[in-house]
Design goal:
Shape: elongated
Number of helices: 15
Order of helices and strands: HHEEEEEEHHHHHHHHHHHEHEEEHE
Distance between the termini: 64 Å
Helix content: 55-70%
Radius of gyration: 39 Å
Structural class: alpha+beta
Number of strands: 11
Length: 464
């Protein structure tokens, strides 16, 4: 029995020594060994300080939520945690509270160095997860990889897929045309009612005055020189004699045949006017382009277009009818799905897709490893997402920010508090810390815990 105790004692002390050694060896190359030993010693022997956290409004907190200290270098360091919570005078593990008890570790900064304390919570939406998974630098790298792969295999991919895409789009457009015609016909009364309403609200009140005041002057300025030139050329070909005697003949009573003036007009248009207009076809195109260009640059026209477009897009009735039409044409009808299925499931299409997949597989693998990591190590961003969403960790935290020289001199800055603002107060041996709702900085201290080189990302501030 005594030998067993000796073995167990040696095993325990060996584990302690190995733990200290591992903590020592994991420090970066610039860290001093003495600092590691001091940290371990102070953690177990130092004095822990209790504190009360007072927030301006009820927020989501849980026992164990960490407290970080952000010094001038911007690197967060954990200095404490939430110790206990009360709701309705009962101790709880988690709840919405504006008062909490915290414990600060040995080595926490002096309270006169604190400029402000802020509460943060991670964005739990899909957008928050995507922002955490795809920081700006990673998005740029993925775009660069896709562009490089496209440039390298552009001709091969186009040669393989274009026949399939062309045939699919050609038939899909015919299918959409038929389905849209049926859907519009089914909702004709609703569309007519919306059109009648906008006829008064937009066309009569905005479009017609805008055409008179802004569009018509542009048309006149652009088209008048060409119209004058064409008019002169046409007038030079007018024969007053031919029109005159035919008009006189048509007006003379008792003569048998009539309509000589109309016949001469038709001949004049076909033989004289049409050739003149055909010679000025390019001029018509140039004038039209100039009109459209000037109208598009007109600030009043652009403002009216944006306003009326937003009005229609925000109209609940328009949204409902468009959603119904899209659902009927694209989702509930099988014709469009059958079109895509027919063209993309043939043996030839599958062979083309296999060839394209073979060309793009290395790039897809690189992008996957960049996003998720490799078999040996997952990516820091993916680790953050797993901890936050799968393990429900790192969702709430409090940051304390260091007092700067400007604040101590009485000058307020964007990241500090003024000198007369008391963040921490100690009364009867109990520290009370005033915690605000973070709305000036965006920081995720857990990123540096997963990978110190990872920039802060994916944290959303709770608005005041």
């Amino acid at each position: 029995m005594r030998g067993l105790r000796t073995i167990l004692g040696l095993a325990i002390w060996s584990a302690i020594v190995l733990g200290v050694w591992n903590a020592w060896s994991e420090e970066d190359a610039a860290a001093e060994p003495d600092r590691v030993a001091d940290d371990v010693w102070s953690y177990y022997t130092g004095e822990y300080q209790p504190a009360t956290l007072r927030l301006p409004q009820s927020v989501d907190l849980a026992v164990g939520d960490p407290i970080f200290y952000v010094a001038e270098d911007g690197v967060p360091r954990r200095i404490g945690e939430v110790h206990s919570l009360r709701t309705n005078q009962e101790l709880v593990r988690r709840g919405y509270v504006n008062l909490a008890e915290a414990t600060f570790y040995p080595g926490a900064p002096a309270w006169d160095e604190i400029a402000k304390a802020e509460y943060y919570s991670a964005d739990q939406s899909l957008a928050g997860a995507l922002a955490m998974m795809f920081p700006a630098q990673k998005r740029q790298e993925i775009v660069r990889m896709i562009v490089a792969a496209y440039q390298e295999h552009n001709e091969e991919i186009t040669e393989e897929l274009w026949p399939i895409v062309h045939a699919t789009l050609k038939e899909a457009m015919l299918t959409l045309e038929q389905e849209l015609r049926i859907s519009f016909n089914n909702h004709r009364d609703q569309l007519r009612a919306i059109g009648a309403r906008y006829q008064q609200e937009i066309v009569a009140e905005d479009v017609i005055p805008l055409v008179k005041e802004e569009v018509w002057p542009i048309v006149r300025r652009r088209a008048q020189p060409m119209a004058n030139q064409i008019g002169q050329e046409v007038w030079a070909r007018v024969s007053l004699w031919r029109f005159g005697w035919r008009m006189l003949y048509d007006k003379t009573p008792l003569l048998p045949d009539k309509n000589y003036t109309e016949k001469e007009w038709r001949r004049f248009v076909d033989a004289e006017v049409v050739p003149v207009l055909e010679r000025h076809t390019e001029d018509f195109v140039d004038v039209t382009q100039g009109i459209l260009r000037d109208v598009g640059k007109n600030p009043k026209v652009k403002a009216a277009f944006r306003k009326n477009l937003n009005t229609m897009l925000d109209d609940p009735e328009v949204q409902e009818i468009l959603g119904t039409i899209v659902r009927e044409v694209v989702i509930e009808r099988d014709e469009l799905r059958d079109t895509f299925k027919k063209h993309w499931t043939t043996p030839e299409s599958r062979q083309s897709l296999r060839l394209v997949s073979k060309r793009l597989e290395p790039t897809a693998r690189e992008i996957g490893e960049l996003i998720l990591g490799s078999k040996e190590q997952i990516s820091p961003e993916f680790a953050l997402v797993l901890r936050n969403y799968a393990l429900a960790k790192d969702r709430r935290w409090i940051c304390l920010f260091k007092q700067t020289a400007d604040a101590t001199e009485g000058t307020a800055t964007s990241n500090t508090a003024t000198s007369n603002q008391k963040i921490a107060q100690e009364e009867a041996g109990v520290l009370t810390l005033q915690v605000q709702i973070g709305d000036e900085m965006e920081i995720n201290p857990f990123a540096s815990l997963v990978d110190p080189s990872l920039e802060s990302s994916g944290a959303n501030r709770t608005s005041k």
